[in-house]
Amino acid sequence: MSKKRKRYRFFEMLLFLLIGAFFFLLFYGWGVHFIGKGASPDREKPEGEAPLEQDMSFGDTSSPAKTAEVEGLEIRADHGFLPPGGEEKLTLVATFADQRQEQIDSEGINYEMMDPNLGSIRKGGIVRVSPEAKTGDVLTVKAAYKGKIAEIQLMVRYSLEDTIKVDQTGKTVVTNLDDPVILVNKERNLPNDYIPSDLVPLKIPFSFQEESPKKSLRKEAAEALEALFKKAAEEDMNLTGVSGFRSYSMQKSIYENKIKTMGEEAAGRISAFPGQSEHQTGLAIDISSTSVGNRLVENFGETKEGKWLAEHAPDFGFIIRYPKGKEEITGYSYEPWHIRYVGVNVAKEIAKRKITLDEFFALDTFETTQ
Question: d(Cα 224, Cα 208) in Å, to the nearest integer?
């Protein structure tokens, strides 16, 4: 091939490449412009067309949760009650100025456990209850986010399933004997030989003069009861103690006498089977007044003393253990005279909800003490 022909062929190929490149750039630029304009939120949209969503997943400043003004915060928990040593993941929900609510999962959240002795809170809002926490203890957790503060309270409560064992006779026996909120009923028995180690004499008026173990309670309950009696006296309420602690053998004698006089079915409605009596815990006592001759009768609940006791007992950590209308749950007849110590926090929760101690252990949500 001649040199002239080769030169012509070279320029021909070069021209072809230049033309191809020109059209490529032309169509590429047109396509980018068209797509960019179509994605722009400022373009004119046909009537009724929904606005296109912008991608806000990149960069801290583009998330609506991080740019919109927060109007309020709420901490949520799946369970309001946690056992000692238990854990719960909290959820923080923000309400924005446009009333939109959104779950917040951000590095900008600051959590604080108000009483570190009761538990701790880790990154991500995970609460852990101290193994030493007691039933009725209340954990308060605060969260701060974008200048707003939220608070939640969780109550410590042991698991019923983790506090029983079955003895060699097949009987279900409770194991948390030192717990002031121990649940004893027709399904949960005390050991036959159980006697609290911290029983102390009560410094209150009784309906009888002679010395008796019935004039004692566990130390914590005794101090609370003496404070209750002091307050009652200040308000001219004449309360008297009738029967506090009762051993297994003493309860056995009472129960057997009831069976002899009224039959087993009737006796079971007003007297506990031995080993199932709250009196054996050292946390329960029967209260009466001179207005009913210091007797344990149902109309005590209609006296001024009975009404005062029902209203003020929770302030000192006591509940009416067998309230009216709850016979199917407790298994016992209404006893306005039988009060049981459970601690102030638990007593107020039970009184506020108008429930029994048995029902308390079935609750899933805790209503704040505030």
Answer: 21
Angle between helices 304-312 and 219-234 (to 10 degrees): 130
Closest CA to 138 of 147, 148, 129: 129
Residue with tokens 């911290």: 198
CB 269 within 8 A of CB 334: no
- Rounded Cα distance, 323 and 339, in Å: 10
Q: Which pLDDT belongs to residue 108?
A: 85
Output the pTM of the full model.
Answer: 0.80
d(CA 322, CA 317): 15
Query: Could you give the residue numbers annotated as active site?
Result: 335
Mean pLDDT per 10-residue segment, the chain (370 residues): 56 66 60 46 43 33 58 93 96 91 87 96 94 96 93 96 94 96 97 97 97 97 98 97 97 94 91 96 98 97 98 98 97 97 97 97 76
Q: Is the dihedral of CA 269, 275, 278, 279 positive or negative?
A: positive
CB-based burial label for 74 (10 Å; 0-12, 13-18, 19+): middle
Looking at residue 53, what is its pLDDT?
Answer: 36
Give start and end residues of each alpha helix (H) in the chain. 3-39, 64-67, 219-234, 248-262, 264-270, 304-312, 327-330, 344-353, 357-360
Element (H, E) at 165: strand 164-166
If we measure between CA atoms, which residue out of 329, 368, 338, 339 comes closest to residue 352?
A: 368
| Rounded distance between C-alpha atoms, residue 352 and residue 370, angstroms | 12
Residue with tokens 């939109």: 100
Domain annotation for the chain: domains and CATH numbers: 66-156 (2.60.40.10), 161-360 (3.30.1380.10)
Q: Print burial letters for 149-166: b (CB count within 10 Å at least 16), e (below 16).
A: ebebbbbbbbeeeebbee
Both structure tokens of 102: 């959104």
